[in-house]
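Let us practice reading a record.
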Amino acid sequence: MTAGGDFGTFGRFVETPVGAMSPEMKDAYDFTLGLRGLVPGPHKIWLANPTLSKTIVPTGAYFQRESTLTKSEIEIATNIVNGRWRSPYANYEHEIIGERDGHLDPHRVEALISGLATSFDDPRQQVVYELASTLVAPRIVPLGLYRRAKELLGDAGIVDVTVLLGWFTMVCMTLGAFDVPANAEGLDQ
C-alpha cells in the first residue's frame, strides 16, 4: 500500500482501471459485465484472478435470474449469512436491497442481520429463514425442518438455499480480507 494508508480504491484493494487491465482481466471484466450488467462489490476484487472470476461469476448471476427462490427469499438468506460474517459492505448493501428489491419489512431485515429472532407470514419465507438460520448457526438441520423445507421448496430449493449461503460466505470472506467498508464505492467504471 501507499505510505498514506492501508486503503486502495475499494477497501484495501487497489482496482485496475479498465484501460490498464491485462487482456485476461479485461476478458473477465467483460464476462462479468455481460452476465451482471455491472461489476459490483466483490467482483471488483475477483478480477485480480481472472480465471477464478470467470468460474464463480455465473453462480451469482444464477441467483439474479434463474434461482428457484424469490428475491425476498434470497434476501432473507443473504442477510442472515452477511450478518453472521459481519461484513460491513455486504450488510450495508443487502439491508438496502432486502427492503427495496426483496420488499422485506425493515425491522425484519435488521433482525436477520443482527441475529435476532423474527418470523414471516409466508410459509416459504419462514422455512428459508429457519433453514438458513440453522445452517449458519451452525446447527444440525432437524428432520422436521428438513421435511418442511422439502415440502415447501423441494430438493432444488434446499440446494439453492445452501449454495446461496456458501456463495455469500465467499462474498463476505473476500470483502473481509480486503477490509471493504460499508459505503465503499470503488472506481466508477
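A brief commentary: The chain is about 65% helix and 0% strand.
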